Amino acid sequence: MNRSDAGENDRRLILLTESQGLVDVVAKGARKSGSRLAGGSEPMVLAEFTWAEGRARSFVQHVKPVTSFPGLRQNYDRMMGGIAWCDSVRSFLPFGAPADEIFALSVRILRTLEEERDVVPVLAWGFARLLMEDGLAPDWLVCAVTGEALAKTPVAFDFAVGGPVENPELASGQVEWVDFEVLVGLMRIGELEEPPLKFRHGVVSLNLLRMVMEYHTDRKCVALRSLISDLRSSG
Description:
Layout: E1 2-6, E2 10-17, E3 21-27, E4 46-53, E5 58-67, H1 76-92, H2 100-114, H3 119-133, E6 155-158, E7 163-165, E8 175-178, H4 180-191, H5 202-217, H6 222-234
Antiparallel strand pairs: 1-2, 2-3, 4-5, 6-7, 6-8
Helix pairs in contact: 1-2, 1-3, 1-6, 2-3, 3-4, 3-5, 5-6
């Protein structure tokens, strides 16, 4: 999910595993020419890892790459979409907690992004499912304070109460104003079994999902922020 340099020749890796969730390991010598750990220590690589626990660190012993999702690396938008997904999941999940469903979702997202498709619907679907898997998905069409169905637009989304509020006077914290249609789209996309080919209000929806994740984790999804900025600039 993430790679950074460590020492002169090593790499520090954040892995997403099924049984242990996020794991922090060191691949010693991975930056050396011809290292057997080099290929498996690249970002967005699906591989089988074995590692040994040290006093302060865990050290990779063996890597067997399965796929590097080559289709992602043939297109800038798809590559940036994959990076945004991995960086956001790394920021969202805790270390050491089982994450078999999130692991399967991540593999599916990266495989889907390999296809020649718009990255926005894929990521919006993925992040909506991610919030659902973690029990943090709002009831998009119901006032989080009164429990009544929303009936007008625009709607104030209150992050402190965990959902939209029909009357802004009921808001108790940070608020983002959104059109009712955006919330309808987020409700529908989360119910789909696979990412749609198109998604209306996609960038606005993706940004709201980002804000929800950042509020719950108190950590910024840096790569996703950058991607959304690029998408807005390109119109």
